[in-house]
Amino acid sequence: MFETEEVYVQGMGTSEFLNGFLSDIPGNVRPGTTGLPIPGYKVQVVDENNNPVPAGVVGGLFVSGESLMIGYWNRHEENQRVMFGNSMKTGDKFYQDEDGYFYYVGRCIDLFKVNGMWVEAHEIEDILIRHPKVYQVAVDDEISEEELTQIVAYVVLQPSVLPSEELTKELMRYMKANMDHFKCPKVYRYVMEIPMGRQVKLIGKC
Prior knowledge:
Blueprint: E1 11-14, E2 19-23, E3 36-37, E4 42-46, E5 59-64, H1 76-82, E6 83-84, E7 87-96, E8 102-107, E9 111-114, E10 117-120, H2 121-128, E11 134-143, E12 149-157, H3 165-178, E13 187-190, E14 203-204
Parallel strand pairs: 12-13
Antiparallel strand pairs: 1-2, 2-3, 4-5, 5-7, 6-7, 7-8, 9-10, 11-12, 11-14
Domain AMP-binding enzyme C-terminal: 123-198
Organism: Clostridium beijerinckii (Clostridium MP)
Protein name: Acyl-coenzyme A synthetase/AMP-(Fatty) acid ligase
């Protein structure tokens, strides 16, 4: 009777590639990483123009491999934006260390830069939704009149709560007391519902 040894590794793949393209290597696992490229795939961290970025710099994940799908059905504009022959932008933010290991940062839609610092929308939303007067929230970024990136919170209030300048000040104080100041929304917009067409994640209380 043969004994087998169970080996657990973590990695990453997508349905678009029908396979994994990053994985730990048994015996050479680096904690906190998503591993190294699987043979047959080329994986890079790139800037907005698909140029590779140096180690330690956050960028988009750009994967090449022959198992990539032909494209999304009836989504021509999206195909043009993310598909490049046998390569694809996955919509994930990563960085690499000097040895080539990949570190997951987040989804592109949830990340933006404010004053040169990466900000995660879900981190802000997770704090703001805990305020007792907030029912739903979605965080996004926009360019201010001064042409600077600012954080905007779209807030649906609890039924018994009315929007006011004093409430905005209260929410600002609450956020500054619970997270780094550069992550705190500068603008609060009170809405009846979060527009589903917005490219922002909706967080609500059950």
